[in-house]
């Protein structure tokens, strides 16, 4: 940088004279978890920094005597160097809260957040000779706040009975988006017998992988998830390439670009298996305490969602069975009403026939064998009287074939053949056109 840019270069050959407390500041932040760096000149040369600073930017870049932009080139374009230039030029401090920064590059890029202050360093004459950078990383707090908000949203989804697939998929995406390091989430659901695991969610995993593990058995040594489901306890595989649990799935994991898998069983309140919650990584990695805590929290959330789903499904099934039983009962009641109505019609018909039988019996007293049917009712019947029917009370009447058969169906009657017309044999051997399918009459 030159003086034309508005910044003050260090005078050639002039030693840097710092405020008396500079060594104390360095000592204060030497072993602190707070980030500290002391920068010199308009190029912001890193003169000294504490271990927390180098841990933040990456231990492989732990060196001094180079400009900050050379040490951490990814800061270019993120606004931090512009702010340093402004503080160096104006001599006014700058403070930032929860400021987002992307560190490193490529697959190792990570998102971090900081509270920081840029303070000008002055010589004895009051001139700005450098900048102190003091900051505290708030990434975990920021992520915790985000996760808390997302977790609350998931609980609200569960409370309003959103579809299980929607809740599990949203949970997986939440973790994948907010985790400080790349992670891929899978949720598998246990069959009712607990013998197999079915796909529940895995938005970040390849489709072929989700399809391949859909239906895997639960058992010792069946990958991370099958083993966790069998043991009912978390199973951590830090390196899929060497772990014997993955012998049968190593090629599949390789094609999916997976190198580590930590699986936590999802258990109901009574201890029964509901499924598994797995976190995959593309590089071999062992979990930290925060990773295990995250898995426990969201495995518990998944358990709540799955149990609520099972309870709701059981309620719907019970309602369906109740509705079916109600429909069957209504059908049976309708049939009973129809049978009762039919029985009442038969009773009415039987009563009418009985009345006709009594009337015919009275007429038979004067005319033993009438010429025409006596069982035709009020409309009468002109058919020949061929058969004699008697009821249980001894009343007898003559009728044609059709009306005699009607009497036999509706009144407990006795059949009396007419000897003059051939008797019972003539009735049995009558022409087909005169026959009707009826129970055999009492002889």
TrEMBL record:
- Which keywords does the record carry? Coiled coil
- Residue ranges annotated as coiled coil are 315-346
InterPro entries recorded for this chain?
Answer: GAF, GAF-like_dom_sf, PAS_4
Domain GAF intervals? 150-316
> In terms of domain of life, where is this protein from?
Bacteria
Respond yes or no to whether keyword Coiled coil is given for this record.
yes
Region feature (Disordered):
1-22
Q: What is this protein called?
A: GAF domain-containing protein
* Gene source species: Saccharothrix lopnurensis
């Amino acid at each position: 940088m030159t003086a034309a840019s508005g910044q003050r270069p260090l005078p050639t050959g002039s030693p840097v004279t710092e405020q008396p407390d500079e060594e104390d500041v360095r000592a204060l932040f030497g072993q602190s978890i707070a980030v500290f760096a002391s920068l010199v000149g308009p190029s912001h040369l890193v003169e000294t920094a504490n271990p927390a600073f180098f841990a933040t930017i990456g231990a492989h870049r732990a060196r001094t005597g180079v400009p900050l932009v050379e040490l951490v080139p990814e800061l270019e374009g993120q606004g931090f160097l512009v702010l340093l230039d402004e503080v160096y030029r104006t001599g006014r401090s700058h403070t930032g809260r929860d400021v987002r920064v992307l560190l490193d590059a490529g697959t190792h890029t990570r998102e971090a957040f900081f509270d920081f202050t840029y303070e000008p360093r002055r010589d004895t004459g009051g001139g700005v000779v450098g900048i102190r950078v003091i900051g505290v990383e708030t990434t975990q707090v920021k992520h915790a706040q985000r996760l808390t908000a997302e977790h609350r949203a998931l609980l609200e989804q569960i409370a309003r009975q959103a579809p299980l697939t929607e809740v599990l998929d949203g949970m997986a995406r939440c973790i994948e988006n907010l985790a400080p390091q790349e992670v891929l989430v899978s949720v598998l659901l246990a069959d009712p017998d607990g013998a197999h695991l079915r796909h529940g969610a895995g938005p970040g995993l390849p489709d072929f992988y989700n399809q391949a593990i859909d239906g895997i058995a639960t058992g010792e040594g069946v990958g991370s998830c099958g083993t966790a489901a069998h043991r009912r306890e978390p199973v951590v595989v830090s390196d899929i390439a060497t772990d014997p649990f993955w012998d049968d799935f190593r090629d599949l994991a390789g094609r999916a670009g997976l190198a580590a898998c930590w699986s936590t069983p999802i258990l109901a309140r009574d201890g029964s298996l509901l499924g598994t919650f797995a976190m995959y990584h593309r590089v071999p990695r062992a979990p930290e305490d925060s990773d295990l805590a995250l898995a426990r929290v969201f495995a518990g959330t998944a358990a709540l969602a799955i149990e609520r789903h099972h309870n709701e499904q059981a309620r719907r099934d019970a309602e369906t069975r109740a509705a079916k039983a109600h429909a069957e009962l209504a059908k049976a009641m309708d049939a009973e009403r129809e049978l009762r109505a039919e029985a009442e019609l038969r009773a009415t018909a039987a009563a009418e026939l009985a009345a006709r039988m009594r009337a015919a019996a009275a007429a038979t007293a004067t005319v033993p064998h009438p010429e025409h049917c006596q069982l035709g009712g009020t409309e009468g019947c002109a058919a020949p009287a061929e058969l004699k029917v008697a009821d249980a009370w001894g009343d007898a009447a003559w009728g044609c074939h059709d009306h005699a058969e009607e009497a036999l169906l509706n009144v407990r009657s006795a059949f009396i053949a007419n000897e003059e017309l051939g008797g019972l044999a003539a009735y049995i051997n009558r022409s087909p056109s005169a026959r009707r399918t009826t129970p055999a009459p009492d002889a």
